[in-house]
């Protein structure tokens, strides 16, 4: 089984061109599944749909979230589709098994005032403050995912044309940069980054105080630190800035399709979750604009 898992992951990497993050997710799910079938002494090539259902029940019993169980099923299904392709199995045991229904929770967002308060916290009086200000402004201005932001290289930013090129696996998109973000980014690139990096050949856009590429954990800690400085009681993660970016654009009249493009959603239904926050904005516009309101 170990050999087939290795070949499956190589197939995903080379043929499907999946990002490292997605690959790691598949690896975790399949290795966990491998541990289960080996412990239960089940032949993975002769496994039945009932066995798969029992595995999903087992995941729920050990406290896995519905979204995690659903993702696990998707990973296992991909694995058996691959085994079918290479003629290691004659049928897909996951066929006909429904994913557990995931309740779509409303994304956590910040109000415009809370965003302003958070972004006002980093002071560009030292290298760290200049970097942090540029990073927070950038995260809110682009709505990019944390992994996408920390993966950026200096060449991906086009200051003169005021946009950034975001690469995610084989896909890429260009996202505009607003005035405030551009100003903070320019200051960081010209005044702080050259001092933080060890040599001029360093590629990462955002670096830590040692000059290395910033990590997800590093980014998360920075957001948490400034949330506490701003005395905001809401739980703020870097993803909350992404949600806030999309919601504020929608509330201010941006087209849903344009927001989908900027967020890099392949399916419009992922973007439509922000529609629930549009009502208040529309009501206010209606009250101000309609003669009989």
Give me the CATH fold name of the largest domain.
Answer: hpI Integrase, Chain A
Shape: globular
What is the typical, i.e. mean, pLDDT? 87
The structural class is mainly alpha
Detail the poorly predicted runs: none
The CATH architecture of the largest domain is Orthogonal Bundle
- How far is it from the N-terminal to the C-terminal residue, by CA? 67 Å
Q: Rg to the nearest angstrom?
A: 23 Å
Structure write-up:
The protein is mainly alpha-helical. It folds into two domains: 2-85, Orthogonal Bundle (DNA polymerase, domain 1); 112-287, Intergrase catalytic core (hpI Integrase, Chain A). The protein is 56% helix and 5% strand. The chain has a three-stranded antiparallel beta sheet with strand order 1-2-3, with no helix packed on it. Strand 2 and strand 3 form a beta hairpin. Helix 6 (127-142) packs across helix 10 (238-251). The longest helix has 20 residues, at 20-39. The protein starts with a helix and ends with a helix.
Give the helix/strand layout.
Blueprint: H1 2-14, H2 20-39, H3 49-61, H4 66-85, H5 112-119, H6 127-142, H7 146-150, E1 157-158, E2 163-168, E3 171-176, H8 179-196, H9 216-229, H10 238-251, H11 256-263, H12 268-271, H13 278-289
Antiparallel strand pairs: 1-2, 2-3
Helix pairs in contact: 1-2, 2-4, 3-4, 6-8, 6-10
Brief summary:
This protein has helices at 2-14, 20-39, 49-61, 66-85, 112-119, 127-142, 146-150, 179-196, 216-229, 238-251, 256-263, 268-271, 278-289; strands at 157-158, 163-168, 171-176. With 293 residues, it is mainly alpha-helical.
